[in-house]
Structures are given as C-alpha cells and as structure tokens.
C-alpha cells in the first residue's frame, strides 16, 4: 500500500503551489498589457482569439457542462493517500477565519453540534469516504465563531475492507491516513473530523483505532489551532458494530483517545445517569445524539426535540442534533420560516449563546439567499439566489418582554420580502402597552474590550404610518471601572445600558461611512449614526428599543425592518484602504449560443466562461462584488462602451469563475470587449469609489475557422 511521507514532507506539499504545471494553468490568455485609464486607475488588457476547441477543465474541480467549481470529496483510500494540494482546489478553500468567541469552545460549558443530513445524504454534496465541508458552509460558520468538521465514514462490507487496509497493518499505514486528513483540513481551512466507522473490524484493526485517533488528534492540534477529532458510537473494543447509546467500558477507549464522543440516538435517562460517572470532568466532550426525525426508541424529536435537550442539559452533557433538515424535508415548504422559528424557539432555553468578541461588527442580516439582490437599498438583480458564504451574522433567537409589568412584546423574524443589503432583513413586530414607555429586544451578545471611541450605525424603516421612536442601545460590563463620556446612563447596575449620542457632524475622513447619517435613503430606509466615547469598558449587548410617541397614552403596535447594524472602531475608519491589484483573466472557454438564442438576439451571441484572479489582503474585506461591461467596436484599445456595469456575483476569495456570460460576437475587422471590475466591500461596510476597483479587459476576435 502506498504510504505518505513524514509530516515535514506533507507540509512541504502544502506550500508547493507554484509548480510549473500550476503556473501554466493560471497563465493569462494570449497577450496582455497594462494601461493607465486615469490619474489613479490601471487596467490589464488581455487579447483572445475565440476558439471552440480549447482543452476541457479538470472534471474533479469543475462541472463538465457549466465549468462551475464543484464541492470536493475523496471516494477511496487510494485517492485519499494520493491527494496533494493543487491550485485548482482553491475555490473550495474557506478564507473566512474562525472568529473568536466567549466562552471559548475549550471551556467546559455544554456545547451543541449540528450533524446535517438531507434526504438520506446530501443532494449535491453526497456522503463519501472523505467529505470536505462545502466552502460556503465553512465561511458562514466561521463568521459566527462556529467550528466545522469534515467526515470520514466507512460503512458496510466495503468500508470494513477499507479500514482493514490501513488499520490492520503497522503504524505507518494509519499514520499515513491521519497525515492526509490533517493536511486536507489545513489546506481547506476547516476544523477537524468526525470519524464514523460502522463496519466490523478484526482484532488487529480495532486495536490500532486508539493509536490512530491519538495520532490524528495530536497532529491536527499542531497544524490546525483548536482542531477537533470526534468518534461516533458504533464499533466497540471487540471490533463488533454495537451501538451502545452511551459512553461505557465497551467504547471508552475511543473517547480517551480523541476530543469527543458522539453517542447513538436510542438512549433513555438511565443511560445519561450512567454516563455521568464515565465522563467525569469531560462531560462537555460527550455529545449525546438526538435524531430530529425521532426514529427508534427516543425521548423526543421533531417538535418534541426540546424534551431530549432538557434531559441532556440536566446531566451537563453536550448535544448532537442529527438531521435538523426535518423541518424543511417533512413539513410544508411554504411554511419553512415559521416552522424554523417554532422548532428553534422550543430549544432556545437549552442553547446558551456565545458572544462576539472582535470589531468591526457589521451585519445586514442577510441569510445568504434571497428572491432578489439588493445593494445599499438599490435593487440589482431579480430572481432567486443562494450563496452561503454571503450569510452575515444572525441575531439571537428571542422574544423580549418590556421593562415593567406590562404585556408588551417584541418578536423577530427573518424576512426575504425586503432588504437593505443582500437578500433579506430582520423583521421586528411588537406592542408597547399603555403601562410602559418602551420595549426593547436584545439582538446580539458581545464581549468586546471597547476602544476609546466607537461609531455605531443602524439602518431601519418603520412599516406604515407610525411615530414610534426607534433607538440603538448598548450594554457595557465592568461598570466599576468603565467611564462613559457623553452618554446618558439608563441604569446603575453592574451591566449598564446606554443610549448613544447621535453623530451629527461627521469628520471629513469618515464621510464615506457616515455620508447618509440621519437621512432618508432609497426604499424608505433611514440611517442613524452614533458616537460613543468609552474608557475601560467591555461592550456586552446590542439592543433595539421602541418607544411610544410623545403624548401617546394608547397601546402602540409597530412593524420595523432592520437593514443593517454596525459597531466600528473609529480609528479603523482613518486608515487608507488598499487597492485591488493584478487582475488577470485565465481558463477561458467559449461556446456558441444555443440556436434559439441566435434567433432571438442580434448580433450573434457567444457564451464566455473564464477565471478571474487578483491580489488583495482579505483581512480588509467582507467580500468582493464582481461586475462586467460588454461592448464591441473599434478602436480595440478605446474606452468601454456605454453599458452600465452589471453585477455578476460575489467572491469571498481573490478569484471568481465567470460562467456562461452572454457576449456579442466580434464583427469582421473589429474586436469584442468585456471589461471585468472587482469591487472590494470593506468590513466597515461603506461603498468604495469605482476609481479604486480592480479591472481587466478581455479583447476578443474571431472565431477563426
């Protein structure tokens, strides 16, 4: 059997991206030049002769029909051991760093693991021996401070043969597999592995499972900070597949060899009672399985899942929710959001939140999907879209009562009907009863040592005629040493809630960020900006408060949409942004338009697919927006045509795959022209002038026969 070399050799392979072959793949098309088109702008110009016989793209990385990048997996042991990092894999690399959280995952507070399973597996991302988490899922989870694990699954007779091949031999065999799993997690930037072996093993093979788990855990921890290895409750120490539904003497050796244990689902309370002594001080490392479908002899599933969580938390264990897609798969699709709210609302008391602990904090509440795409109140595209990497930080799931004895309330709902930026907004509905002056809802938990000055921004709009007041409030901790300047304090408790002072006259250098503060924006949105001066404080919570109009004594109902919230270190807005540089065009493929398209459109149409690459420090941006302008004519080196830039999509790395872009065929003696523009979207959320975007133009002629 082929074996991997030492860790040093594996690490060397990780860095060996710029091989001659990979440089050939990335080399821009044909000839190119860089030309200046203004005082501060440069544009790379690439020339291409249209050809319909270009070499196909590697099938492992791209869909053979559309050339879209596809999710990555390894179906066999041979492919796992032979895998090495390749530049073509880069579309599947998660570039969103794992955000810090409080308390950290390493604390002994019970945790919650979600194990996704959709319609018996996945639709596009099917289970295989080694499944790499889809990059969009990893980016979205990391943005929320949540770890993501890949899966190593061996089942049935074939899985048993595979495991015998690397576990029944000497240590070099299982270390080779472990080294590859570590290398894959390191390269694709996810956080560890769930090991699930549901095949009987020989005594020799099962005897090597504990050292395999120990070696994998140790190496992963060295290469992936905070990496985790979990073991699923299936094989016991004799090598037989016997689901125990608990941690006990028959499977404890595997628990002792890795970071956590995921139990099977058919447990009762007596199983939990026995596990308390077995787990000892590691109760948080036992993830008690809950099948949301409620198959078998279970305590609770479906809308009774909370009954299982109540018992799990009572005993101090972590929980592993399996197949929460039940809400979508088995219930009415049109009621999905309402059913989601119901399902998670029942679990809310058993799911303690972790706190955000870094700035800037910016969210537009986008779910990473929508029925249209909006940019700062302006509709850009109509039609359904789905991009998990575009999901922004989501609020706490909560229903808040007012301060006092009244019966007011505020409820939050995600909403696709309107958006300020992205595809959705946060809908808040509530009632202010006559007995109280205001109601408030806590949307985010934070644990951020606050710099001396911060700016806050809120974009919102009230539905219908309403004079209800809307305000942003914050809670600070360490009130004994916390000095708050220029803010009226609402309470004198250890945790104090404050109403920030509106920012009325923005400093000149902050004009981009606060250019619309206090103004009515497009679509009826309003932006409010605030300035807060603090010293020695920790920012704990963000609230939105709703107050009755002056003089009103009646019950006040309201509906409000939140489009965006921001908390920004003032100093970060004074630093200049870098420019997008070195935009290149490569991996070009041309296709003729379908006959029906040719009949409907004149001049003749082509379909262009290509890869864009550029250089930009990713720590400065939320994402990149990719645009194009299409034109034909001469002179070839002239300015782009009058077409307004059209949004193609979003990128979360320094590359983007353009797929089946319709362009006009170049006429005799003329060049066709497509200009690509790369717009950085800063983490602070303001618009970057077009002069600071990156750009490259593709000039094409032909096709030649």
TrEMBL record:
Domain Cytosolic endo-beta-N-acetylglucosaminidase TIM barrel: residue ranges? 126-372
Chemical reaction(s) catalysed:
an N(4)-(oligosaccharide-(1->3)-[oligosaccharide-(1->6)]-beta-D-Man-(1->4)-beta-D-GlcNAc-(1->4)-alpha-D-GlcNAc)-L-asparaginyl-[protein] + H2O = an oligosaccharide-(1->3)-[oligosaccharide-(1->6)]-beta-D-Man-(1->4)-D-GlcNAc + N(4)-(N-acetyl-beta-D-glucosaminyl)-L-asparaginyl-[protein]
Could you list this entry's UniProt keywords, alphabetically sorted: Cytoplasm, Glycosidase, Hydrolase
**Keyword Nucleotide-binding, does the record have it?**
no
One of the record's GO molecular function terms? mannosyl-glycoprotein endo-beta-N-acetylglucosaminidase activity
Annotated EC: 3.2.1.96
Q: Where in the cell is it found?
A: Cytoplasm, Cytosol
Q: What class of enzyme is it?
A: hydrolase
User: By its UniProt entry, which Gene3D superfamilies does this protein fall under?
Assistant: Galactose-binding domain-like, Glycosidases
Q: Which Pfam families match?
A: Glyco_hydro_85 (PF03644), Ig_ENGASE1_C (PF25529)
Signal peptide range: none
Q: Which residues form the Cytosolic endo-beta-N-acetylglucosaminidase C-terminal domain?
A: 575-701
- Which GO cellular component terms are attached? cytosol
Annotated segments matching region Disordered: 1-31
Query: Per its database record, what is this protein's job?
Result: Endoglycosidase that releases N-glycans from glycoproteins by cleaving the beta-1,4-glycosidic bond in the N,N'-diacetylchitobiose core. Involved in the processing of free oligosaccharides in the cytosol.
The Swiss-Prot or TrEMBL record describes its family as follows: Belongs to the glycosyl hydrolase 85 family.
- Protein name (database record): Cytosolic endo-beta-N-acetylglucosaminidase
Native species of this protein? Panthera pardus (Leopard)
């Amino acid at each position: 059997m082929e074996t991997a070399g030492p860790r040093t050799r594996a690490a060397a392979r990780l860095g060996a991206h710029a091989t001659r072959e990979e440089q050939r793949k990335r080399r821009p098309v044909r000839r190119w030049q860089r030309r200046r088109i203004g005082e501060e702008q440069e544009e790379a110009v690439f020339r291409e002769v249209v050809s319909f016989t270009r070499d196909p793209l590697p099938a492992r990385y791209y869909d053979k029909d559309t050339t879209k990048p596809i999710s990555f997996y390894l179906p066999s042991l041979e492919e796992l051991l032979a895998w090495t990092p390749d530049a073509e894999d880069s579309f599947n690399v998660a570039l969103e760093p794992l955000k810090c959280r409080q308390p950290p995952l390493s604390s002994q507070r019970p945790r919650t693991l979600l194990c996704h399973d959709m319609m018996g597996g996945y639709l596009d991302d099917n289970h295989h021996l080694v499944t790499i988490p889809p990059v969009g899922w990893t980016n979205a989870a990391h943005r929320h401070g949540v770890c993501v694990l890949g899966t190593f699954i061996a089942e049935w007779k074939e899985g048993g043969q595979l495991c015998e091949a690397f576990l029944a031999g000497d240590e070099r065999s299982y270390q080779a597999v472990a080294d590859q799993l570590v290398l894959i997690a390191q390269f694709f930037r996810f956080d560890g592995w769930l090991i699930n072996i549901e095949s009987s093993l020989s005594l020799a093979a099962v005897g090597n499972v504990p050292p395999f788990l120990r070696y994998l855990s140790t190496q992963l921890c060295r290469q992936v900070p905070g990496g985790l290895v979990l073991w699923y409750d299936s094989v016991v120490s004799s090598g037989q597949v016997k689901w125990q539904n608990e941690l006990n003497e028959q499977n404890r050796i595997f628990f002792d060899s890795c970071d956590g244990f995921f139990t099977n689902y058919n447990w009762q309370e007596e199983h939990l009672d026995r596990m308390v002594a077995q787990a000892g001080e590691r109760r948080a490392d036992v993830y008690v399985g809950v099948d949301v479908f409620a198959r078998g002899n279970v305590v609770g599933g479906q809308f009774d899942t909370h009954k299982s969580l109540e018992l799990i938390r009572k005993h101090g264990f972590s929980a592993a929710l399996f197949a929460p897609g039940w809400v979508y798969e088995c219930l009415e699709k049109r009621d999905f959001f309402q059913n989601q709210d119901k399902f998670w609302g029942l679990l809310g008391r058993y799911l303690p939140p972790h706190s955000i602990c870094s700035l800037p904090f910016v969210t537009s509440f986008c779910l990473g999907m929508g029925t249209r795409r909006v940019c700062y109140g302006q509709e850009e595209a109509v039609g359904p879209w789905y991009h998990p990497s575009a999901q922004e930080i989501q609020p706490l799931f909560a229903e808040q009562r007012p301060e006092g004895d009244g019966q007011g309330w505020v409820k939050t709902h995600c909403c696709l009907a309107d958006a300020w930026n992205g595809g959705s907004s946060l809908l808040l509905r509530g009632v202010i009863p006559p007995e109280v002056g205001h109601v408030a809802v806590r949307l985010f938990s934070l644990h951020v040592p606050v710099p001396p000055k911060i700016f806050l921004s809120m974009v919102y709009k009230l539905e219908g005629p309403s004079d209800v007041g809307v305000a942003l409030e914050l809670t600070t901790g360490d009130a004994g040493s916390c000095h708050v300047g220029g803010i009226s304090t609402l309470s004198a408790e250890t945790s104090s809630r404050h109403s920030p002072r509106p920012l009325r006259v923005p400093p000149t250098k902050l004009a981009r960020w606060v250019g619309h503060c206090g103004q009515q924006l497009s679509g009826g949105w309003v932006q409010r900006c605030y300035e807060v001066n603090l010293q020695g404080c920790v920012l704990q919570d963000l609230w939105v408060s709703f107050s009755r109009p002056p003089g009103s004594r009646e019950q006040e109902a309201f509906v409000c949409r939140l489009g965006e919230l921001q908390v920004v270190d003032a100093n970060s807005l004074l630093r200049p942004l870098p420019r997008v540089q070195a935009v290149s065009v490569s991996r070009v493929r041309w296709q003729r338009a379908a006959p029906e398209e040719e009949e409907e459109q004149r001049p003749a149409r082509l379909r262009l697919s290509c890869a864009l690459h550029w250089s930009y420090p990713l720590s400065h941006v939320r994402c990149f927006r990719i645009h194009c302008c299409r034109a034909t004519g001469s002179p070839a080196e002239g300015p782009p045509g009058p077409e307004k830039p059209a949004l193609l999509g979003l990128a979360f790395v320094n590359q983007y795959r353009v797929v089946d872009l319709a362009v006009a065929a170049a006429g005799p003696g003329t060049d066709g022209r497509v200009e690509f523009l790369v717009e950085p979207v800063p983490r602070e959320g303001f618009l970057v002038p077009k002069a600071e975007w990156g750009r490259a133009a593709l000039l094409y002629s032909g096709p030649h026969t």
